[in-house]
Amino acid sequence: MNITPDTQKKAALIAVFVLLMAGVLYYNLRDDSAPAPSAAPVVTTTGTGGSAGATNGAAKNVGTTAAQLDPTLRMGPMLRTESLVYSGSGRNIFSAASAPVDIPKPIAPARPKGPVVPVYTPPVGPPPPPPIDLKFFGTETSAGGQKRAFLLKGEDVYLASAGDIVARRYKVDSIGANGIVVEDLTDNNKQTLPLLGR
Q1: Domain residue ranges in the chain
Q2: Largest CB tally within 10 Å, which of 31, 76, 133, 155?
């Protein structure tokens, strides 16, 4: 078998890859359960009935560093926390024999005495019909005396007589000098449209 420089490079890369994977495998499978040795904090108290500041300091120092996060049971810190004595001011919520708390009396009753007057709310009726979107802007009278109205809807202009249907929806009922009556055929809604500019 002939060893070329190209196969030597490939063999070197495979060796580096194998060493790297062995390091990763060792890192993932190593046993981290043994805690690192550390010195336990020394806490001094003035006795079982010592001051609240000393006992609170002892309680704060138990298990505060990362090295002390150990799952094994240690009796020293447990005995220190059992010896703590409640010495706060006010009522002890854990004792039925402690002094009751003075609750201030209310200034006024929460519910007024006497009859309660209900607030009248008028019944809500159906919503008003939508306005007819036609604009009346003039009339024309023919030689025979028949009136026709000029109506505008958007950009569309309509010339309608009484009884005509405009925009496939609105029926012109009557035409006057200052306004016309139009009926919306979709909801039988009649409205009077005033003459624009009056």
Answers
A1: 52-82, 135-194
A2: 133
